[in-house]
Amino acid sequence: MANCMVFHTQIASIMEMLANAAVAEICKLVDDDYAVFRLEITQSQKENRALRRKLQLQELKVARERVLASRPSSVKLVNRYRGMARGEGNLTGGHRSLVKPVGHNTWRDDQPITVDEGNGTSTQHVIVIESADTEAAGPGVKQERSEGEEDPRHSSDIQTGAPHVVTKDPTTTPAQPRDISRTPNAILKSETETLTRLGRLGCPPTPRSEYLLYGNPSQRTVLSHRDSGDALQTGNDPTCSYATEMIPGDVPVGLDTQTNPIRGDWNQYSSSVYSEGFLDKKGEGLIVDEVTVKEEGDAPLIWNEDETHLRGQSQGNTSDFLDYRESLEPNPNIATHSPLHALRDREPVSTSMAPSDSHGRILFDQVLNSNDKARVQAWEVGATSGGSKEKRFFCMFCNKGFNCPQKVEIHQRVHIGVKPFSCTQCHMRFSQAWNLKIHQRVHTGEKPYSCSQCHMRFAQTCNLKRHQRVHTGEKPYSCPQCEKRFSHQHQLKMHLKVHTGERAQYYPQTSSNES
DNA sequence: CTGGGGAAGGGGCCC
DNA sequence: AGGGCCCCTTCCCCA
Asked: Quick one: which of A310, A11, A325 has its CA closest to A189?
């Protein structure tokens, strides 16, 4: 009997153990399944989130495209219009203005227009922004300001995507914290870093130069001189327009400067100097001799010639400015300067648009007259040696050499965008008098160059020369891939696309093909 | 695609 | 020294 009891007890314990084991097994299975289930749920949720995000992006994209479609197709960055026109600015008005000649409806519909007839009675100023950032900001990027309203920080704020508070009255605008003297290196390093990103400046910052390049270079549309010019000339009106005053290279570089409301346009003017145009020159740096940069209320800053030579070779501590990557963030409070900037500080002169070519001339004179002619002299290298053809004078912007300072002056119009010579018939403007003279043949019909073998006449000698290949059969442009020859360089360029299968590739072809 | 003209930009040379 | 002119390059447009 006792044995039976023990047996039962053992059986019971065994059963209990088995039951426990079974429960444990079941729990384990449930746990495992639950874990798998949870994992699946989590993954599904993640996928849902990703899809939702994707959907939102798509919607955003569609919305943006709608906005773009509803807007004029080529809203231009305001920088684009900071060419000559900025010179018309009323210095005391503190506004920038673009000039549209009366009776010349040559602006495209989408062009930002500000009418300033040169009498200082500008009525409105249009700022049009185009950038990925601003587009992302949604519609309403076109902003108009009436006279006196323009906040000089406006463009920079917009460009940087930073929230902008419109200050109605520039005179009541709180003073900007611009203690330059405390952070010149930071400024410069920002600038240099940006330039370096652009791949056009292979040298570290100069300690005291103060122009600032900001914005996202990747968003910039780099146009060649020709590009911009053409773009501006393909407006509704095929005739000439003030659009040609735009600085060729002055495109979306994002250069901008801190503007004192009192000074208005000059900063924009100076910004144009440091535009893609000059930066694009073979990676050459710029040379700036000593320029006193005077900020109102601030201690004067000096551009020291010894410290501001920027050349193609790295001259300084690269890591030094790389440390300031963070400072690349656009800082609207940073005052920026350029030689021109400095000049305007020294000699603020009204540059209201005059019916003649005066405004460009005035501007340019402002740039080069005061001390700049002397400055050009200052760049003279080896002044006492060498013949007259030796290039002893160098462009302050691209370091290109010339044999006399006047050539430097003329050349620098390329960078500055000054076109002092205007056509009386169509208001086209030119940087060189001869170009104007050639242009005016369009109006006069003068074609002084006639072909000796046919009746054709030409306004430009080079066109005659090119035409004469028709008679001579000369085809100086040969395809390197198929021996085909062309009389027109453009023909070769187009032909090369046949080989590459590309439609838009550009193959620069120089006259080296000419034999 | 090819051929060709119109026109502007800009550097160099000469007087 | 400065202006006028030449020349080259480039882009655009059209047939």
From this structure: A325
Angstrom distance (rounded) from CA A288 to CA A308: 6
- State pTM to two decimals: 0.37
Residues 6+ apart with CB under 8 A from A332: A153, A156, A157, A160, A162, A176, A258
In this complex, which protein residues place their C-beta within 7 A of any atom belonging to strand C? Answer: A 224, 226-227, 230, 234, 404-406, 432-434, 437-438, 460-462, 465-466, 488-490, 493, 506, 508-512, 514
From the CA of A104, how many Å to the C1' of B7? 20
Residue with minimal CA–C1' distance to C6 is A461
* HSE (side-chain half, CA atoms, 13 Å) at A369: 12
pLDDT in tens, A236-253: 333 333 333 333 333 333
Give residue-wise pLDDT tens across range A403-446.
Answer: 778 888 888 888 888 888 888 888 788 888 888 888 988 888 88
| CA nearest to A452, candidates A437, A468, A466 | A468
Distance in angstroms (rounded) separating the CA atoms of residues A336 and A352: 24
Which nucleotide lies at the shortest CA–C1' distance from A247?
A: B9
- Listed as ranges, the nucleotides of chain C within 7 A of a protein C-beta are 1-13
